Fold this sequence. Notes:
Strands 1-12-6 form a three-stranded antiparallel β-sheet. The chain has a three-stranded antiparallel β-sheet with strand order 8-10-9. Strands 2-3 form a two-stranded antiparallel ribbon. It has three domains: about 5-150 and about 220-240, no CATH class; about 155-205, no CATH class; about 245-310, no CATH class. A hairpin with a 4-residue loop joins strand 2 and strand 3 (about 40-45). The longest helix is centred in the middle third of the chain and has 24 residues, at about 110-130. The protein contains eight helices and 18 strands. The chain has helices spanning about 20-25, 50-60, 70-75, 80-85, 100-105, 110-130, 190-195, 230; strands at about 5-15, 35, 40-45, 65-70, 90-95, 135-140, 145-150, 175, 185-190, 200-205, 220, 230-240, 250, 250-255, 270, 280, 285, 300-305.
Amino acid sequence: SDDRLTMKMNHAITVLPSVTYMGMNVMLPHETLEWDNKASKVKVNGENAENTDSRDKLLKSYDENNLAFQLKNVLEMSSKEIKQMITGKNVIYLYHNQIDAKGHELKTTKELVEATEKAIDEIKQAVQVLRTNGIAHIIITADHGFIYQEKPIEDKDKIDLQGQNYEGNAHLRYLITPSQINVMGVKNTTMGVSLNNDDPTNVYYPVSPNEFVARSGSKNYVHGGSSIQEMLIPVLDIKATSRRSIAQPAEIKLAATTFRINNLKMNLLFNQTAPISDTVLPAEYHAYFTDEDGNLISNNVTIEANRTGSAA
């Protein structure tokens, strides 16, 4: 809802398991991806790419004018510092970890809602900061989604892998192992499918929202599996301009057939003249009567001009 931005929303599908150490690395430019079973990491072109510095090094191996950076640092920088950072750059990756970091340790519903809202606000701030400093093309996406349930799944509904002879440790929503297992309600793919190679390592996942019996962080916030919530990610393609906004507050108009007051109680109808859009912003009005000296002689009614459909 910003007339200085033009946005298209596309989508992508993550790899399996739908976790950060897979998704972040798959999104980097690469010739090869390989699973390091011993370190439980994805190597990019044979190198580790687990932190911002290593990702920055990998991006620069393709073009010296590429950069990897933390989004939180951008929000703390002055306009002069941002201009110095972006001058001459080709592609800049900005990483943000607000929801994932909070999700794994949350104890209440409110915490995740607040973390999500804060993340959206920070991304919006970053878009405006970059826009005002001359960045014209911004893409926003995610390494994975998540399932959030207010009530944790009860143990009786979990998938117990006890009795299955396998290497590795089960996580709530996935299991990576070279072993073969056969459990009802569980399917598998291979790491080779995710990394586009011939790696036969198995990735097992529940075919329902259920979880494996496993030691993990939050039991309410989970990801790594094959559900739409975990694997379908947005790709927001934003074109930005540095011009000033021409957006104006929504206007309202009194739809009255008569202006004669002949009763202590009367109904007045106000119309919002145009629906909310990128150039019409929500507004709040207060309607009341005064006498000729400006003294309040009625109640004060709040009118929210925030209709998005046909004006009413």
